[in-house]
Amino acid sequence: MDAKMYRHILEDSLLGTLHDHRLGPSTIIFQHDNDPKHTARLVQEWLEHQNLLVLPWPPSSPDLNIIENVWAEIKKRLETYRPRPRNTEELWRVVQNDSEGKEGS
User: Fold this and answer.
1) What distance in Å separates the CA atoms of residue 53 and residue 61, rounded to the nearest whole number?
2) Are the C-beta atoms of 10 and 37 separated by less than 8 Å?
3) Boundaries of domain holding 18
4) Does 20 lie in the same domain as 49?
């Protein structure tokens, strides 16, 4: 993904979601990290033009987005299951069992 595609996603998804929830761009604080496509001039100018307030992100910071840590933990736990889930139904059963503290798949 490049900056142009990222901006297109923001135009479609972010503005569409705000519209669906009857929110204006100036009513939220938008968060993304310092990925080059996020900090590209094309994207920064678009965000400014939309009057979106962007949460400042420190350079070279660790990933502060909790979902990345959650996915990493799920992946680590799933790697211990044998046999490995072969389809989405088996995967969902393993995830549910793990979240409920049950052993096995």
Assistant:
1) 20
2) no
3) 3-59
4) yes
* Cα gap 67→71, rounded to integer Å: 6
CB 78 within 8 A of CB 95: yes
Domains of the chain: total: 2
- Bridge partners of 30, per DSSP, are 54
The overall longest dimension of the chain from CA atoms, in Å, is 52
In terms of Cα–Cα distance, which of 44, 36, 35 is closest to 10?
A: 44
Whether 49 and 81 map to the same domain: the answer is no
Q: What is the pLDDT of residue 67?
A: 82
Give percent above pLDDT 90 in the chain.
Answer: 50
2: nearest Cα among 35, 45, 44, 48: 35
Q: E-strand spans in 7-99?
A: 29-30, 53-54
Domain check: are 7 and 55 in the same one? yes
- What confidence tens digit (pLDDT) does each residue in 41-53 have? 999 999 999 999 9
